[in-house]
Amino acid sequence: MRVPALIALVLGSFPSLGLAATDKPPLLTGESLPRLPQRLVEMALEALKAPDWLVSLASFATAAGTVVAVFLSAFALLSLIERKTLARAQNRLGPNRAGIFGILQPVADGIKMLTKEDIVPTKAEWFLHLVAPVMIVIPSILALGVIPYGREWLPVPLELGLVFFFATGTMTEVAVFIAGWASGSKFPMLGAMRAISQMISYELPLIISALSVVMLSGTLSLADIVAAQSGYHLGFIPAWNILTPWGFVAGIIFLIAANAESNRCPFDLPEGESEIVAGHMTEYSGFKYALFFMGEYLGLFAISGLGITLFLGGWQAPLPGLGFVPSWFWFFGKLAAIIFFFLWVRTTFPRVRVDQLMRFAWLCLIPIALLTLPVAALWHFTANPDGSNGVLSWLLCSAILAVPFIIITVIFNRRLAPSLRTYHYAE
Q: Which residues are CB-contacts of 171 (< 8 A; sequence separation ≥ 6)?
C-alpha cells in the first residue's frame, strides 16, 4: 500500500492516509516545481516510516542539492554564453567545435580540467594549496542557500539571512590569502594582497548600501525584505526599492561594488595577466584552477541574487495581473538580465589601474553610500500617514543625493584626474 499512498501524495490527494487535500499544496504545479525533489524525498521517507530527524536531514540535503545542481548547470551554461557574447562583440565565432554550435564546450572544458596534471610547487604548503580552491567555492554555495528564489522556494529560511550572507562572504578573502601564501612564490602573494585590498575596499559600500534597505524594511530576513516590496504604486508601478531616490543610488552602488567583488572587468585586477601573471592562481593547474573560476561564477550568481532581493523585489512580478506565472521565473529572469549586464560591461570597459580602483571606492562610492542612510531615514519620516511618499519626499531626497554627486564628480574631474594629454596621430 505504500506505492499507491506515494502516488496519491504526489497528485495532491491523500485519501489513503486519511489526510485532507489542503494539508500540503500539490506538487504538480509550476510554482512548486523547484521543490519537487525535496517533497518527493520527504514523502518517500514518511511512507517508509523513517524517524523525523532523518526526514528533516534528507529534506535539507535534497534542497541544498537542488540549488547546487541548478547553479552548477548555470555555471556551465554561462561559461559558454559569456564566450559567445564576447566573440559576438569582437566579430568572431567563439567556441564552435564541441557539439552543435559549440554547445558541448563546457563539457569539453570540464574533461580537460579533470585530465590535466595537478602541479604543486616544491616550496608550496601542500595541504593549504589543496584547501584554498575548495574554500573559494564553499562560501558561494552557502550564500546561495539563503536567497528566496520564489514564493515557495527558500532553501534555508533564516531570520538573519542577510548577516549570514555577508558573514560567509568573508571566507573568500581568507581563501584568497591562503592561495597566495601557500603557493610559495612572490607573484601569487602579491596578487593575493591586491585581491584582498580590493575585496575589503568594495565590501564597505556593498554592505552600507544594503543597510538602507534594512533600515526601511526593519528586518534582516531576506524573505521579509522581498515581502516589504510587494504591491504596486498607482496600480502598476512596482513597490521595489530601486524605484525610490535612495534605493536607486544604493542600487547603483551595490551593482558597482558587486562587479568589483566578483572580480569582473573593469575591476578584474586580481587576475591581471599583463601585470602579475594570474594573481593568486598563478601556481594552480588542472581542476584546482577550475575551482577558482567556479567560485567566481557562483559568487556572481549569489551577489546578483542578493541585489535582486534587496532592490528589484526578488521574485515579485514587474506588473500586476501576472500572478499566474511562477514566481521563481521572475527571479531567474531578473538574474539573467543582471548577468547579461555584467557581460556587457566586460565587453565595453577596459581594466582600470589599481590606484584608480582604490580611489573610486574610498573617495566616491563609500561617501555616497553613507549618504543613502540619512536619505533613507528622511524618506521614511516624510512619508504620508498611509505610507506613501509625495512630491516633497521625492524633491528633498533627490536634491540631497544629487548635490554631493555633482561635487564629487567635479573633484574627480578637476583635482584628482591627471592633466589633459595631447595625442599626436600619424598622418
A: 135, 138, 139
Please state the length of the chain. Answer: 427
Task: Give the model's pLDDT for residue 241.
Answer: 92
Predicted confidence (pLDDT) at residue 11 exceeds the cutoff of 60: no
272-306 pLDDT, tens digit per residue, is: 656 656 778 888 888 888 898 899 899 999 999 99
- Eight-state DSSP code of residue 233: E
Claim to verify: residue 55 and residue 168 sit in the same structural domain: no
Strands 232-233 and 237-238: antiparallel
- 12 has pLDDT over 60: no
> 191 and 76 share a domain?
no
Q: Which residues pair with 237 in a beta bridge?
A: 233
Q: What is the CA 388 to chain-centroid distance, rounded?
A: 30
Is residue 177 within 8 A of residue 125, CB to CB? The reply is no
Q: Do 25 and 60 reside in the same domain of the chain?
A: yes
Distance CA 42, CA 27 (A): 12
Q: In this structure, are residues 94 and 154 in contact, taking their beta carbons and an 8 Å threshold?
A: no
For residue 136, give the H/E element and its range. Answer: helix 126-144
| Residue 126: C-alpha distances to residues 122, 155, 176, 287 (Å) | 9, 35, 15, 15
Q: How many CA atoms lie within 13 A of 68 on its CB side?
A: 12
127 and 93, same structural domain? no
pLDDT digits over 160-183, tens only?
889 999 999 888 889 999 998 998
User: Domain tally for the chain?
Assistant: 2
Q: How many CA atoms lie within 13 A of 100 on its CB side?
A: 0
Closest CA to 220 of 154, 156, 162: 162
Q: Scanning the structure block, which residue is given the C-alpha cell 521517507?
A: 45
Last residue of a domain, one of 100, 126, 154: 100
268 and 408 belong to one structural domain? yes
3-state helix/strand/coil string of 82-106: HHHHHHHHCCCCCCCCCCHHHCCHH
Range of the domain at 213: 116-416
120-153: per-residue pLDDT in tens?
888 888 899 889 999 999 999 999 999 999 988 8
pLDDT at 15: 37
Task: Give the position of cell 540619512.
Answer: 374
* Domain closes at, from 100, 124, 147: 100
Alpha carbons within 13 A on the beta-carbon side of 146: 23
